[in-house]
Design goal:
The complex is a heterodimer. Chain A is built from one helix and five strands. The longest helix of chain A is centred in the middle third of the chain and has 8 residues, at about 20-30. The model of chain A has no long low-confidence stretch (mean pLDDT about 95). By secondary structure, chain A is of the alpha+beta class. By secondary structure, chain B is of the alpha/beta class. Chain B contains seven helices and nine strands. The longest helix of chain B is centred in the C-terminal third of the chain and has 19 residues, at about 180-195. At the A-B interface, loops of A face helix 1, strand 5, strand 6, helix 6 and strand 8 of B.
Chain lengths: ~70, ~220
């Protein structure tokens, strides 16, 4: 059952419905270059790592703003 | 049109390769003020303009004034600070914020919250990715989110310092940057500006990553 995981400009659909946000974070950290401690949003709202994701959810791990210029 | 370009580094220089040409033929007579307290150095030639000596804002303004007589160029040869932000960012301005620290982003964001009408387009990058944020205020209403918001605590509570606040003996290590990433961020900033002009600006933020060659625009919902 698919959820959409987003970080920065990248995203992937993965079969992780029923897992916690923490599980998703650990599973996708390398593929999407998710920073340690990145804020998690499910359908735009901030959630903790114990939140259970449902099919069709979009989970964003918010990427920090670029610092340099 | 009154435009402010704050920061004449990699992103600012990339922006200024295109923006004046666009404005000269559509908005003749626009006033563009460049703001930077830094000088051009030989080590920046791989990403920034190829001037030998002198303050970035002044040298770039002189160069562009010769190229684009249809426009009016001015320069502020100091960093934006608490002392001058009110005179630099004014009612009705369109501000392209191209700086390299979050403390200045916070400072300019706060100034924009005091204004009824302003468009702030802020860009920043790491080596191969970056983002832009857009704060559009019209008639005192916030149409897109301020850039110092709960989704970006690194800007809301910056850990770095505004260059105007650094001591003379403070040495700040610069991380290496890639011209192509500066360019990609500048392009996205210009895209947001065009969307604004055409009445199609409806996002708060755009993420950019040059390796997968992706961008993603985001409209955020504020937690009330």
């Amino acid at each position: 059952m698919a959820v959409r995981v987003v970080s920065g400009a990248s995203s992937q659909n993965v079969d992780l419905a029923g897992k916690t946000v923490g599980d998703v974070r650990a599973f996708m950290a390398q593929a999407l270059n998710i920073a340690d401690g990145a804020q998690a949003l499910v359908t735009g709202h901030s959630v903790g790592d114990d939140h259970v994701v449902a099919e069709g959810d979009q989970i964003e791990f918010v990427r920090e703003a670029g610092e340099k210029g | 049109m009154n435009i402010k370009i704050i920061g004449i580094g990699g992103i600012g220089c990339s922006l200024l390769k295109t923006l004046p040409q666009f404005l000269a033929f559509r908005f003749e007579g626009s006033e563009i003020t460049l703001v930077d307290g830094d000088n051009f150095e030989p080590r920046n030639r791989d990403r920034q303009a190829d001037f030998e000596v002198g303050n970035k804002a002044e040298e770039m303004a002189k160069f562009l004034a010769k190229q684009w007589p249809e426009l009016v160029f001015d320069a502020v040869s100091s960093y934006v600070s608490l002392e001058n932000v009110i005179s630099v960012v004014r009612e009705g301005d369109i501000v392209f914020l191209c700086v390299d620290n979050h403390a200045t982003r916070r400072l300019v964001s706060d100034r924009c919250q005091d204004l009824d009408d302003v468009l702030l387009i802020s860009g920043g990058n790491e080596f191969t990715d970056g983002n832009i944020q857009v704060n559009w205020r019209r008639d005192g209403e916030e149409l897109t989110m301020s850039i110092a918001n709960e989704f970006h605590p690194e800007i809301l509570f910056p850990r770095d310092k505004n260059p105007a606040e650094r001591g003379c003996d403070e040495i700040v290590e610069s991380a290496p940057q890639l011209l192509l990433t500066n360019n990609a961020v500048a392009t996205s900033m210009l895209n947001a500006f065009y969307a604004f002009l055409e009445g199609k600006l409806d996002y708060d933020e755009v993420y950019i990553d040059i390796f997968p060659n992706n961008t993603r625009s985001v409209k955020r919902e504020r937690v009330v």
